[in-house]
Design a protein that fits this description.
2 helices; four-stranded mixed β-sheet
Length: 80
């Protein structure tokens, strides 16, 4: 089984635009679904893509303008 990698941009722009809430959602989602062994969740420094933030990389694919609803949809398909 391949471990999924989720990197949350913690640069000031993405953080201010909602990635703190996104990070909290991801931590809870992983815990509630017992996915600790399947997902590596990390924070990252600014990726110089501030205008499209908040940004989150899932398995090295950039997802822009992220919010909880978008994350739920992406996680349903990315984690199968």
């Amino acid at each position: 089984m391949t471990k999924h990698n989720i990197k949350v941009c913690m640069g000031s722009s993405c953080f201010a635009r909602g990635n703190l809430e996104n990070l909290n959602f991801l931590e809870n989602y992983i815990k509630e679904n017992n996915l600790d062994a399947e997902i590596e969740l990390v924070g990252g420094l600014c990726q110089d893509k501030c205008s499209t933030g908040p940004n989150i990389y899932i398995d090295d694919v950039l997802h822009t303008e992220m919010n909880e609803e978008k994350l739920k949809e992406i996680l349903k398909t990315a984690l199968v």
